[in-house]
Design brief:
The structure holds two protein chains of two kinds. By secondary structure, chain A is an alpha/beta fold. Chain A is about 45% helix and about 15% strand. By secondary structure, chain B is mostly helical. Chain B is about 60% helix and about 0% strand. Chain B is globular, with a radius of gyration of 21 Å. Chain B starts with 16 loop residues before the first helix and ends in a 9-residue tail after the last helix. The chains are: A alpha/beta, B mainly alpha.
Amino acid sequence: MRKIWDIHGGIHPPENKAQSLDHSIEFAGIPAQLILPVSQHIGAAASPIVQIGDTVLKGQCIAEAVGPVSVPIHAPSSGTITAIEDRPIAHPSGLDDLCIVIDTDGRDTWHQPPSSRDFTQLDKATLVELIHNHGIAGMGGAGFPTSIKLNVGEPNNIKTLILNGTECEPYITSDHVLMREYSRKLAQGIAILAKLVQPEEILLGVEDNKIDVVAGLQNALKQHDFSALTGKATSAEVITFPTKYPSGGEKQLIEILTGKQVPTGSLPASLGIVCQNLGTAVAISDAVIDDRPLISRITTVTGQAVTKPRNFEVLLGTPVEYLLARSGYNASINNRLVMGGPMMGFTLLDITMPVVKTTNCILAPTEAELPTPPPAQACIRCGLCAEACPASLLPQQLFWFAQGKELEKLEQHNIADCIECGACSYVCPSNIPLVQYYRASKAEIRQRDADMQQAEHAKLRFDARQERLDRLEAEKIAARQARQAKAAANKAAQAGQDPKAATVAAALARVGAKKSALEPTHKAPASDPAPDATLATDVDDPVQRAIARRATQQQADTANPAAALQRAVESAEARLKKARLRLTNAEAEQDNNVDAFKLAVDKCQSKLNQARAALDAHHAAKNL
Amino acid sequence: MPLVQITSPHAHTSQSTSSVMLLVALATLPGVAALTIGFGWGTITNIVLSIIFALALEAGAVSLRKQPIGFYLRDNSALVTAILLGIALPPYASWWIILTGMFFAIIIAKHLYGGLGYNPFNPAMVGYVVLLISFPIEMTRWAAPLELVSELDTSGVSKPTLIESFGIALRLIELPAIDGFTMATPLDLLRQNDALMISDLKQTYPQFGAQGGLVWEWANLGFLIGGLFLLYRKIYTWHGPVSMLVTLSLLAAIFYDGGSSNSGGSPMLHLFSGATMLGAWFILTDPVSSAVSNKGRIIFGAGIGALIFIIRQWGNYPDSVAFAVLLMNFAAPLIDHYTQPKTYGHS
């Protein structure tokens, strides 16, 4: 028997898993409309490559990956693109994001019918490419592009491949039924993963409340010769450990199975460990062996507000509404709708939101089941939270500092290591929403860091600009002095043809030029003696050029007033932009004249508004 | 039903601060029963008057702070403070003693610091110590065990009924003759008689009982049972109480020389006399004013155990739980600073 370790803290909330385990996985069907957010993963959003009105087939790529940290999106069924627009998406923020909407035709025609491929013949690069091109992102929680996680390089130092079959959140059973019914595919996926990362051992960690799947998994794993795939003496084991939330957190599972802690700020790979979600492994099997992109997943629909809790094989983009309707949803007794589990899931306000790659559960509880939290009472420092914290933090101290917005204290107490599992809030007898405080504080810390970085950047830019202006000014003055000297010399030569006098004048001028170039720049222009006559005759003179330009412009303006107004708007815009830049710089420098700069911005804004109004008035008059 | 937007987690234990406090209050019952059986209704009058004053003062303070009164009264914290102070006071304490004590506990020690959760000192102990220092005669006049009262056969209300007891507490009825009705406690005797062997004391003074003193040993056993119940219900961890009791017993064992004039009494006497068990399971377990981490609570408890022994042995007061707890309350933030647990992933 392999040794397992315990993690600090943890809680034992009621599991509530039995309700959704009675039925086998059921295909949810093809809804009339599929809504596919272009950002279902961490990293850059995919970019749509279809137009409204296009007909797409099942499995066809409809949005391609942008940059290295991104994955493409495929059409889960055949149909017509009817919209590419912002829609409410399943995200804790509740914000809208770009979605591709497909009105399905019900025929479910494949773009490229699934084939069968022998993965043992493929090299690693091809495998990684297949995984990337089939749109696979981690299906456990964060949705990190799987191909990046698996691109471990050659030779790699990966010793342990961990498959996370913990599913420690109450209510959710999607991984449980996956292990129960898809064990063959899962083993295939594990074999592909083994070929990719070449581990010395493969550990499939399962909480002991799912003991019924162990025998089946062991049989399925026996079908593969992992040593042949990795070229090492690789063992594959199913390991059960006591049920406790949050054992399924990646860091927690690693500690349970290996006794090691992932150092703060680094990835499991630094310990020679790669951790994968089970759904992801099955998706990899589908992608590599069957050439089927990630277009569906298993989602649990449960809670007392549905009469038929069960697990569905759901096409991505299926509206939650559609799944609820198939589960006997009673909206009148449902108080909140949770995507994910009761510990880390987020509430949905709109039941038209779609299922995405990371949606493992839709929980529709009644008020009695998950009551609305009562108002928070005072923290009595009972310490239950510190005992429950799997990261060994001191939640009540963090709460204290979060209330006082003491960001540095929060950092000293390692708020960054909080995994937001919710164990502290769960046990808090005073009902304090601790995790909410930590989320807000983390956001404040991020904002502060960003602001500091921006200020630093602005300061550098300002310094560079100041230096450049000083240099230009000095060059300009030097050039002008040289011109004057030349003019004086010419004059002298014309007047008396006295070569001596000319030489003296030129020398004097040179000295003058040098002097003024060394002087502080902003003083120079005013004290500069500039004989008008010289300027007037100098064709290279910028002032003359400006006067000439103005004259031509005035002529043109009388001919075409609209263009003039347009130009007025443009120049006002340019001035406003400049004024804003100056203001930013001044703010970054904490200049005393910030108010003056603000005034300037306001003035420019009002001038711009006037110019725009004038232009509009002109257009209106014209249209009349 | 309209859908609500709430951040995770959505599940929550059924345990609330109010129910925790109520459980603590209930857990004092065995000890209170032992005190009542042993010393008469005086403990009950203390507790009842304490509760009345505490709730009134709490309501007044909360309303002055413009907070919802019902919401704060329902957290039951004032109730627990009242019960603990009521137990700690000598039975049949006068109403004005109780009111003064409760005023310092609720108003000064708690609400002036910001209310529940913000008080650095245990409110009940602050109230107790203020009374002990201000009214030493009243505070050291402890009732005699009832079984000894009957032996003395004093006239008048030597064994007051419940109604009579309230009369005494409100000073509508005069306290019965001092000599028979009140009596030095075993710890008092130990403090005052340095020149006698403990065995001699036991022969002279019947109130010494078997281990920690008549009634006292039963009361301490009662509080021990209540504490173990709270431990079983996971209201707190073993670290603080066990650390305190172990430290106290160890020190008592080291300094016990079999019962000479300088000896401080056996470990059993220290464990089962005075406020030892009440302090261990009900006072130092007050989470607000104690250290936070388990390691911190071991240090906190050990400090209290050591201070109790030191003051009992060499100090001026016969018992010292309240002083020991308050002194360690001072130290709690420092202990917290040096006992931060190692966060996951930090070496």
